[in-house]
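Exercise 4. Each item below gives a protein and its sequence. For each, produce the structure-token representation.

Item: Helix-turn-helix domain-containing protein (Massiliimalia timonensis).
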Amino acid sequence: MNYAKNHNELFVLVERTIFDFVDLMNPGHPANTKFVIQNALIYIEENYAQHLTLAKVAQHVYLSNSRFSTLFAEEMKESFSKYLTNKRIEKAKELMKNPYAKIYEISYAVGFQDARYFSAVFKKSTGLTPMEYLKKHL
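Answer:
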């Protein structure tokens, strides 16, 4: 208000402020998109070991499944499922540093309910079975 010299300038300043605010509230606004994705990434980091689905994350960030999927892929340059799988595999690799950990325990710890499926996904992702990876990296 200190910048306005008269009522007309004050009106223009208030109008611009309102338009800027409305633009910021638009879910497609870049600042909002980054905030939504950051919120989703934090949620994924905290819950990757659970039965986590795109629908659960979308609900957490108050978006429809399709809108969240699109925003996530645009921002992260990969699909939600690919990101989650990569996150789980990276966490599994960290757990494999413990030479006493068992593969089925690791698979459960990173969100896979079936150790065989975990092994297949791990091999597809790394080119090695979990046992081959252990032998190579221990």
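Check: The chain has eight helices and no strands.
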